[in-house]
Amino acid sequence: QQPVQSPQAVILREGEDAVINCSSSKALYSVHWYRQKHGEAPVFLMILLKGGEQKGHDKISASFNEKKQQSSLYLTASQLSYSGTYFCGTENAGGTSYGKLTFGQGTILTVHP
Amino acid sequence: NAGVMQNPRHLVRRRGQEARLRCSPMKGHSHVYWYRQLPEEGLKFMVYLQKENIIDESGMPKERFSAEFPKEGPSILRIQQVVRGDSAAYFCASSPNRGNTEAFFGQGTRLTVV
Question: What are the pLDDT digits (tens) for A37-55?
């Protein structure tokens, strides 16, 4: 079953912050975050593993709440280059689900000068 | 270190023809995943392969679609007797291990059926 992302779209001015959420109804093994610009391939941002850890690089970080089966992506001091569609991909625990990613519907982020 | 390579980047086929999409994973990666993306939509899982084996094909349509990842050479996604509804971007991703690890995407093949 597809994870649910919220919000569906976000509009920011440069320098503002944003949070994108990803929720699953199934037990999760890991959560992967990608950004895709129009007409391009999804670009890997980070992976969060079971254990509730938080990861980040530069001004983009993420958390994973295993109990709630949720992950959040935090973008601080947004830059124009952050514009794109953000997808979370979830890896479910058990069986043949292990390894494959099920993606949310995406969150469109637009950053204006 | 070359990334995931897909070819062709663009493919135009007439209804009823066959489409062959190729994916060469990153060096050292033996796990390949195919996803389909319709315009303005998300990525839908199709099939997961490891060298010479299909691990999970739960997202593949039962008819006309097949995938392979031979011991030598790229992974191939084959669509027989294409229809207009097959028009989409097909992305391939690869990873070094099964699960719990980063997967990197290729640039995709944009299939247009006319």
Answer: 998 999 999 889 876 666 6
